[in-house]
Amino acid sequence: GFLEHSPMRNIKAPRLPKVGKGFLSEEDRNKLLELCPPTTFMGARDAAIIWLFWTTGMRLRECATIVKIYGEGSK
What we know:
GO terms for molecular function: DNA binding. This protein is mostly helical. The chain has three helices and no strands.
């Protein structure tokens, strides 16, 4: 038949320590920027993305969904 009470009702789940996401240090940011050659399109793009993350706290998904919006001049 059915149990009247769950045998698990008095068992508590173990507390796990909260692990925050790491924050990029200024030194690490500079190391990443050194890897972006400013003379190429992709290097300039990557440097801009790193600065965007660093200065705004933007998440990767937020950056990936940026859409360029044109004004009425490009109808």
